[in-house]
Amino acid sequence: MTPEVEIKFACEPATLDALAARAFNTPARDRRLVSVYYDTPDGLLAGRHVSLRLRTDETGRTVQTFKTGEGLGRREAESETAPGRLDLTGAELQAALSPDDLARLTPRFTVQVRRRTCEIEAGESRIELALDQGEILAGGDRLAICEAELELLSGTPRDLFTLALDLVAELPLTLSLRSKSDRGNRLAAGGAPAPADGLAPDLSCREALRLALVAALGEVAAQVLQTTAEPSVETVHRLRVALRRLRSLLSVFRRRWDPGNPSALRTGLRDLSRACGETRELDVLLEKADPSGALVPALLAARRRAAAALVETLSQAPARTTLLEGLIFAEAGDWRNAPGGEAAAASGLGEDLRRRWRRVRRLGEAFPDLGPDGRHDLRLRIKALRYALETLDLPEWRPLTQSLSPRLRSAQDALGALNDADSAEGLLKRLGLSGDPRREAARLVAGLKRREDRTQARKAVRRLVKSPPVLFT
Fold first, then answer.
1. pLDDT tens digits, residue range 324-336?
2. How many Å apart are CA 367 and CA 375, to the nearest integer?
């Protein structure tokens, strides 16, 4: 199988035209492509991050493509075949699926696009720019596609990254790590992602971290697109969680990123998280406020302003650049070349979790003496530990995850109730309320500062720290 080094961006049709005007100095190749994707009825290929398709152009030529892997680590095997007929004799396909599974393959969904392509000389490299516009069809459902792809044909990934960074700084191109296969499978399943197999056993430390970073970054990129299109309560919340998961990997496994500490990337992700903050805090207050009271109109007006500011931030070049820099760091950061990374087993990452656990336990034992800042710090550390454990998803950690995650989540939620009360007071003051809205805001803050919440938080933290898991002892 041959490696595929490709970066994909979501965009609007006008951006495709702008790219075409900029890049097509030579005649572009313009084709109509119809791709039929295959899988077993239970989504076996999707769960393994594998895709199998038959792609036919307007001449009737059909190419079968089998792809494996995630991020820039994907590999593909191609062969020409008859239209509508799978060739199941390939060694790669037979190695991935049993004879029974091969016999169960069936068409899952169809992708129809107009594709315009040209080659670009960048540094010492040849790069293909492909502009796709069309739709995915699954049953009676449709999903529009509008994206640009940069694929390295020859040369060095460094030139590909440089070109991509130049383009996202100039044009509204947002990194997309969800392939057509993934989006088609979600559409065919009614919007639900395929049940994933998780990370394979016996991975190296370096490969486990790469896959975890790519998966977390892919979710951030997807939520950025959804939040930009519709900054609803649900999308803003999902974006904040996705950002926290990615930032947790960078924080908990901090010592693994040397050389090349990603300080600029961490700053960019922190800024995106902060941009979500006020919108999310207002959503929490709206959920708790009296819907018929005088405060709600003021909160709704503030929420509209905060959401508009968030969308503006997500649409700007710094946000787009941060996402792309995240991919470059995951796939080609200096940490990938550190000695011993390929030899070290992923299970050794448990030491990083133990370090984090010791900090959580020390703060948790001091909980009765902690002020608002200390409680907030404890909550952030608990969240980072939980998200890192769940996002990395090593097979040998799953029993630990199943037993520990509920306790981490309970303590996180209980501390979150205290944090909501602390942050609500400052936010409501910044709104400059007067009259009935101000009096109602004071009552809301008083209601949030309940003594029983402090008691519940203390109990949840005590349950968490009093019996440390085996891995963390």
1. 999 999 999 988 8
2. 7
